[in-house]
Design a protein that fits this description.
Structural class: mainly alpha
CATH topology of one domain: Serine Threonine Protein Phosphatase 5, Tetratricopeptide repeat
Shape: globular
Radius of gyration: 22 Å
Helix content: over 70%
Number of helices: 23
Largest sheet: none
CATH class of one domain: Mainly Alpha
Distance between the termini: 42 Å
Length: about 450
């Protein structure tokens, strides 16, 4: 079961105060000096920071209805939906727990004709990376009636599993019936995973043209995804503008904070990056979020690049503890992320475990990213020929990922295939011209 869990931060009070002050300074700087953006990427509606207030009003509304009628299954399902939307945005495990509990109560009181509650449980299962469980619930719903939410969820799960054509087939009818920001963005992610970048960008732009004022978090999410694409393709100014716009729409949106912090690390703006990672960590100081491990990893990378190995190790430890807690408890499936951390940290003693984690994760998520991590783990364990096979399968998906191509080059170099290695390195630089020494060091690609 998902639960709020204390974090073992081991932070000194002085460091906490300094970090909080830095986060505030960086936040003010981010919102006051946003990079210029094309008009089509700007949020067309009023954004005055009232999204949290709207959530509180909606939450209070359903809580009051349930207080008056505790057995109303539909109101409990609606309340679970409010909790789940907040969980998606914040990543806080407590919202997932509340959503799960409310959905279960809803089904106990209304076991029939309650697809909304079932789909909330399915989405929570997907967040745990219990993809089989999520698909089972979605199929159960679809046996009763054709449900857009069930098809959308199946598309998300198939994408995570690397079943790209199945993912597209689930989302395509929804777009044909009623295109929306959400389903167009989902298809854009599928196209990116297939390397069909022109089609993906077209879908992202079309999605933004259909955004509505009642879904600010969705608007922030799409801009963050689009910013990630541009950041991975060397267009750093445009990426920074999109991340900043996402944060203007939804202040404290952790995915945008993470992406912006990683971009700032790549460009050498360590102070700003540190501030953004700290904003993630100090929003929920006494409980865990899905983004904590990435924020700790981001801080470790900063100090590694600064040459402060002791401080970097401190944050590697914090990130590792967070990931191990998730993996061991089964709350969220972070085996791949833990394998990545162990490999990037660079301690040979950890490489065998990283390989086992990657092999285990491949049974659940056979996508290009998991195959890339597996190839990396095989290479570090001296199994270059097997690494070549894994990276070849990853490349076969078609995704245009500079890190993937650079890793393929390293594997070819380890096999003594110098010419092939250089070809992969060259292709990596075509995809991301800003994949310089600092970026490679940050991403665990060496120098």
């Amino acid at each position: 079961m998902l639960a709020s869990r204390p974090l073992e931060r081991n932070l000194k009070p002085l460091w906490i105060g300094t970090a909080l002050l830095l986060a505030v300074i960086v936040a003010i700087s981010t919102y006051s000096s946003r990079p210029s953006l094309p008009e089509s990427y700007r949020y067309p509606f009023n954004s005055n920071g009232q999204t949290s207030d709207a959530f509180e009003r909606e939450l209070a509304f359903y809580q009051e209805r349930i207080r008056r009628n505790p057995g109303d299954g539909m109101d409990l399902a609606a309340l679970a939906g409010v909790y789940l939307r907040k969980a998606r945005v914040s990543g806080w495990s407590g919202w997932y727990l509340l959503a799960e509990q409310s959905a279960q109560r809803s089904l106990a009181n209304l076991p029939f004709a309650n697809n909304g509650a079932w789909l909330i449980l399915a989405e929570i299962a997907s967040a745990r990376h219990d993809f089989a469980g999520a698909l089972q619930i979605a199929d159960q719903v679809l046996k009763q009636r054709n449900d857009e939410g069930a098809h959308s969820l199946k598309s998300t799960v198939f994408l995570a599993q690397g079943k790209l054509e199945q993912a597209r087939q689930e989302i395509e009818p929804l777009i044909q019936n009623l295109p929306s920001l959400r389903n167009l963005s989902q298809r854009a992610l599928i196209y990116l995973a297939q390397g069909k970048e022109a089609l993906a960008l077209e879908d992202f732009r079309r999605a933004l043209s259909l955004e509505e004022p009642g879904d600010p978090y969705g608007s922030a999410w799409v801009r963050t995804l689009l910013g990630r694409y541009y950041a991975q393709h060397g267009q750093q100014v445009l990426a920074a503008g999109l991340f900043a716009e996402a944060l203007r729409i939804s202040p404290q949106f952790p995915l945008a904070l993470q992406m912006l912090g990683e971009l700032e690390t790549r460009t050498g703006d360590y102070r700003a990056a540190e501030g953004h990672f700290n904003q993630i960590l100090f929003r929920f100081r006494d409980s865990a979020t899905l983004y904590d491990h990435a924020a700790f990893r981001g801080l470790a990378r900063i100090y590694k690049l600064k040459g402060d190995g002791a401080q970097a190790e401190r944050f590697w430890v914090d990130s590792e503890k967070t990931l191990r807690r998730d993996v061991n408890s089964g709350a969220f499936g972070h085996q791949r992320e833990l394998a990545q951390l162990l490999l990037e940290r660079g301690r040979a003693v950890d490489f065998p475990e990283a390989l086992k984690l990657a092999q285990s994760e491949l049974k659940n998520r056979r996508d290009a990213e998991t195959l890339s991590v597996l190839a990396w783990a095989l290479l570090e364990n001296g199994r270059a020929r097997q690494a070549e096979k894994a990276i070849g399968e990853a490349l076969g998906y078609g995704v245009k990922d500079a890190v993937l191509y650079y890793r393929a080059g390293q594997i070819q170099a380890a096999l003594g295939k110098t010419e092939a290695a250089q070809a992969f390195y060259k292709q990596a630089m075509v995809i991301d011209p800003k994949l310089d020494k600092r970026a490679r060091t940050m991403l665990g690609l060496g120098e």
